[in-house]
Amino acid sequence: MTLQEARSLATGVTAPPTRDRRRRVGLGSWLLPTYTVLALVFLLIPIVYTLVFSFNDSIKSNISWRGFTLDKWLHVCNKQEICQAFGNSIIIGVVATVIATILGTMIAIALVRYRFRFRSAISLLLFLPMATPEVVLGAGLAAEFLSAGVQKGMTTIIIAHTMFCISFVVVTVKARVASLDPALEEAGRDLYGSPAQVFWRVTFPLLLPGIVAAALLSFALSFDDFIITNFNSGADTTFPKYIYTAAARGIPAEANVIASAVFLLALVIVIATQVSAAARRKRLANTR
Amino acid sequence: MAFGAFAGNAVAVDQAPRRRSKVALLLLLPGILYLVLFFLVPLVSLVITSLQAPSEFGDIGEYQTAFRWENYTTAITQYGAQILRSFVYALAATVFALLFSYPLAYFIGVKARRWPLLQNLALVLVIAPFFISFLLRTLAWKSLLSDESFVVTSLKALSLLGPDAHLTGTPAAVIFGLTYNFIPFMTLPLYASLERLDTRYLEAGGDLYAGPFTTFRKITVPLSMPGIVSGVLLTFIPAAGDYINASREFLGGSGTTMIGNVIESNFLIQLNYPAAASMSIILMAVILVLVGVYVRRSGTEDLL
Predict the structure, then answer these.
(1) Given a cut of 50, is residue A39 above it in pLDDT?
(2) Which range marks the domain in which residue B206 is found?
(3) Closest chain A CA to residue B139
(4) Within-domain flag for B19
């Protein structure tokens, strides 16, 4: 008998099952799971719709079903603008992610490991971008670029995306730094490792899962951002901006193809990280 | 994901207090400088822009520095309805998202604990909408709720919807879209705090002869308060500033314009920068006040 079972038995003894109690068990045992399944199905409806309509043999706009085809998947770049926009989104996402991840990781390490003045002011500065509506972030940067006379384009989009990704990187990596056992680094120092060696051979590998998670999150945020991009893109187009401008005249199925492909790729990455984390847990449990 | 950490607050801060602060400075400086330059300075330039006056002999879109405070009063009188509407829609979406997400997060975080695989699968499904373009998701709903769609034709057949009624272009559609799009932002922090809920407290509630409702109200809800606060903020703030759902090409119509739409069209189409800037400042100010009051009242001040 496990502790849990013992406890539930004991509860049964101290509180005799009233009718009310029994009904709660009955309700909870099927109502909540049913609701969960329905809720998850509801969340997936637009995704399924987008996936299905990536196979639609549409001509111009992709609204009514005209038959199944693999054509759009095989010739995505027939619609050149889409591929161009998609390429831009990838470049912006990668550059912004790299910069934001480096800057954010440095801040996260400093926040957990060091004491310094103006700590609460810095925390506030990191929190505020997450609490500010995107329109305000976008309009603010656009106003700054306007008064500085900066031409808007790819560079300004990258600047904007890096800005809103930093805070999310800090939050993600900070949790990892805080859970790190300082004894491991101490051991490194005891073995005469130089500070640089200790960092690159001990600290960094231990932080890596957090850093990777932060980078993935940054890329996802950057790739899907439209509101801030719209204010700072000038004549350059990203994938979401393409969809926004095309929405009035109808979205071609090729856009669904790209979105579906990105979705499936993201799903594979998430499942792979989950599986590898589970495997690691198992390994740890076995060694103990 | 980040939202878990957002909800969970920092745990072990200050592990190694007081080491070389020079290193700390070097670590902090680039990132903080970046945020000052591209987050704080823009806010300042937004304030400056919001007070500008049209330049005397300039074209459309040319302004000069001034202290034109009436930009604010004009914005409020001219767009009062849109400002109010934004907060009403955002509030409605937040309430619906909370009602939708709480049972979901409760099941995943508390009931599904015995089956980690199920728990992980459900979580992946909750965040799955994040992986498909925000705009395409919204457009998918637009098609699914359009006049020729299965939903509308069956509602009309059942006389639940008048023969000339529409679903898209209505406030209900915009609130629906906002709710749908921000549900994961609500579910994740709720999950993060419910997942750590010690179920022994619930048993204790039962032992003390509290009914399921009292146990829920007096134990479960207070213990998941950090998650509720984060979820409400993460839903309300982006919903109030959103202009995709309310846009006419998406789920909105002529009568659903929100403050975000006004800012966008003033800034990017009419080139009326002072109007857009003053609206942005108003939006930001109202949100900061609401967030401040809300966070103080719910007693969770350590957010990051």
Answers:
(1) yes
(2) 2-7+80-298
(3) A247
(4) no
Domain segments of chain A: what residues?
80-251
Mean pLDDT confidence for A219-228: 93
Selected for mutation to probe chain A from B35, B186, B196, B248 (highest A CB count within 10 Å) is: B35
Q: Quick check: is B70 in a domain? A: no
pLDDT (mean) for A108-135: 89
Handedness of CA B145, B150, B153, B154 (dihedral sign): negative
Contacts of B277 in chain A (CB under 8 A): 139, 143
Q: Report how far apart the first and last C-alpha atoms of chain B are (Å, whole number).
A: 14
Confidence of residue A250 (pLDDT cuts 50, 70, 90): confident
Determine whether the interchain pair B104/A35 forms a contact, defined as Cβ–Cβ distance below 8 Å.
Answer: yes
CA B283, distance to chain mean position in Å, is 13
**Chain B contacts of A36, Cβ < 8 Å?**
103-104, 107-108, 122
Report percent pLDDT > 70 for chain A.
90
Q: Partners of A68 in the beta sheet?
A: A56
Structure confidence by residue, pLDDT tens digits, A147-199 = 899 999 999 999 999 999 999 999 999 988 888 888 888 898 899 988 889 98
Of the ranges A116-125, A129-138, B152-161, the best mean pLDDT one = A129-138
pTM of the model: 0.85
CATH label of the domain that carries residue B284:
1.10.3720.10
How far is the alpha carbon of B162 from chain A, nearest alpha carbon, in Å? 24
Report domain A80-251's class. Answer: mainly alpha
Q: Would you call A21 and B243 a contact, using CB atoms and an 8 Å cutoff?
A: no
Within a domain: B34: no
Residue with tokens 């449990």: A285
ipTM value: 0.86
Q: Is residue A22's pLDDT more than 70?
A: no
**Residues on chain A touching B16 (C-beta within 8 angstroms):** 113-114, 182
Q: Are B278 and B71 within 8 A, CB to CB? A: yes
> Percent helix, strand, coil in chain A (nearest 5)?
80, 0, 20
Selected for mutation to probe chain A from B132, B146, B251 (highest A CB count within 10 Å) is B132
In a domain, B278, yes or no: yes
- pLDDT category, A136, cuts 50, 70, 90? very high
Contact B264 A123 (CB under 8 A): no
CA distance B65 to chain A (A): 11
The structure tokens listed for A189 are 């120092």
3-state class (DSSP) for residue B1 = coil
Distance CA B21, CA B12 (A): 19
Say if the Cβ atoms of B39 and A231 lie within 8 Å.
no
Average pLDDT, 10 consecutive residues per value, chain B (304 residues) = 38 47 88 96 94 79 82 91 95 97 94 88 90 92 88 84 84 96 93 89 88 88 90 93 92 92 93 93 92 78 48
With beta carbons under 8 A apart, name residues in chain A contacting B269.
none
Contact criterion met (CB < 8 Å) for A139 and B280: yes
**Rounded CA separation A183/A176 (Å):** 15
Subunit contact B46:A166, Cβ cutoff 8 A: no
Locate A128 and state its tokens.
């505020």
Closest CA to A198 of A213, A183, A209, A210: A183
Q: Is A83 on the interface with B (CB under 8 A)?
A: no
